[in-house]
Design goal:
- The chain is α/β, with parallel strands linked by helices.
- The chain has three domains: about 80 residues, Arc Repressor Mutant, subunit A (Orthogonal Bundle); about 110 residues, ATPase, nucleotide binding domain (Nucleotidyltransferase, domain 5); about 160 residues, ATPase, nucleotide binding domain (Nucleotidyltransferase, domain 5, 2-Layer Sandwich), CATH 3.30.420.40.
- It is built from 13 helices and 15 strands.
- The protein binds zinc ion.
- Zinc ion binds next to loops.
Length: about 400
């Protein structure tokens, strides 16, 4: 009973500290009076919590000129340079690591090829690369508070267990625990697309709304759904598999076993394949005889190449069909699109919009922005979002304030 009470007191402390930190983060510079007003916490509590947050270097005082002139009022703002963390993205062929401060400024970043194919080798490669990176760039600053990793596949973000990834044969791998024990600090693991949707919500193109959908087109096609400011998750933590919506019953076989999934026509490989096939069949294109990849196709389309335009317009229509289904189901305030293909957004977006317009409810698509995502080339921003989430919900904040960080 007594333990239960103590746990409750701790939880209340965590919830209140988090509420104050969130206000300073979202509305700072903000005065203590205003914090008390908005949070409805007693002024004495606000004084105590802000003192603790200042002592731990999480927020700081700044002097602001009062609007009436005269005496300078003291306000609070977040302290972002005193803590660092590492965000890693495990891609198909590349491991990207970034060292960030809490403002999201990347202090240093590296990218290495991944040459392993199995789970244990991947985990060892990741840990060794992290260790070298931390020794080189982060150990001496003594500011490191967390490590976050994102990757494609089925991940339980609460437990940090990678349940399944098609690549690297990962099955039920407790990756967050492994990293946390190895480096003696909190570690967080999440699905890359869902984490990027969170990053767009915190710092990117969907920062102005609570309900949005991020569509990603790379090797596959995926989506991350934000609902009321949170990543929308199903009971098995996996939702938004837009790539496996069937858009052509007579289409190609997909690796999932079905036919004509969106991914069979709207992934980078599928698009490149399609263009190559048309050229082999003798169709005219400025791409004939050249190295064909997604970037050269986009460039050709932007310069008016009819074949490239027609292939991308088709892809836009297929994407539009699947996005229209998402719009009907979730009624988002905004749809974001990320992928190398967005280099030809002037060709792609009109095709997507037209299809969404025809195939979703008018009240859902009227004034619905369908726009490029902000983070097209910063793969570790997803990891940054995972850390930001635990700062804002109070759990990582509490760890820092309890002095549990190990350096
Ligand atoms: Zn499929």
């Amino acid at each position: 009973m007594k333990n239960g009470l103590i746990a409750n007191v701790d939880l209340i402390k965590q919830v209140n500290s988090a509420a104050v930190y969130r206000l300073v983060d979202s509305q700072g510079p903000i005065s203590r009076v205003k914090i008390a007003e908005v949070s409805q916490l007693a002024p004495a509590s606000v004084t105590k919590i802000t003192r603790q947050l200042i002592e731990h270097g999480l927020i700081k005082e700044v002097a602001q000129q009062a609007s009436t002139g005269g005496r300078r009022a003291i306000s609070l703002t977040t302290e972002t340079s005193k803590f660092h963390f590492v965000a890693a993205k495990i891609g198909r062929r590349l491991l990207t690591l970034s060292l960030y401060d809490l403002s999201g400024k990347e202090i240093v970043g590296i990218q290495l090829p991944i040459q392993v194919t199995e789970q244990d080798d991947l985990v060892e490669f990741l840990c060794q690369t992290l260790a070298d990176f931390i020794d080189e760039y982060a150990r001496k600053t003594k500011k490191l508070i967390a490590i976050a990793v994102t990757l494609s596949g089925l991940v339980n973000p609460q437990s940090g267990i990678v349940i399944y990834t098609p690549r690297y044969n990962m099955r039920n791998c407790p990756l967050a625990d492994i990293i946390s024990r190895r480096f003696s600090m909190p570690a967080f693991v999440g699905n890359d697309t869902r984490a990027m949707a969170l990053a767009e919500h915190y710092f990117g193109a969907s920062n102005d709304c609570d309900d949005s959908i991020l569509i990603t087109i790379h090797h596959g096609t995926g989506s991350g759904i934000m609902s009321r400011g949170q990543v929308f998750l199903g009971s098995n933590r996996n939702v938004g598999e837009i790539g496996h919506i069937q858009i052509d019953p007579l289409g190609k076989r997909c690796h999932c076993g079905n036919y004509g999934c969106l991914e069979t026509v709207a992934s980078n490989e599928a698009i490149v394949e399609q263009v190559k096939q048309y050229i082999e069949e003798g169709r005219q294109s400025s791409l004939g005889g050249k190295q064909i990849d997604i970037s050269s196709i986009c460039q050709a389309a932007n310069k008016g190449d009819a074949l490239a335009i027609s292939v991308l317009t088709n892809v836009g229509k297929y994407l539009g069909q699947a996005i229209a289904i998402m719009v009907n189901l979730f009624n988002p305030e905004k749809v974001l699109i990320a992928g190398e293909i967005m280099a030809a957004d002037q060709v792609l977006l009109p095709a997507i919009k037209q299809c969404v317009h025809h195939q979703s409810l008018p009240s859902f698509h009227d004034n619905l922005p369908i726009v490029p995502a902000k983070f097209q080339k910063q793969p570790t921003m997803g990891g940054f979002a995972l850390v930001k989430r635990v700062l804002l919900d109070g759990s990582l904040l509490q760890t820092i304030m309890e002095g549990n960080r190990h350096q």
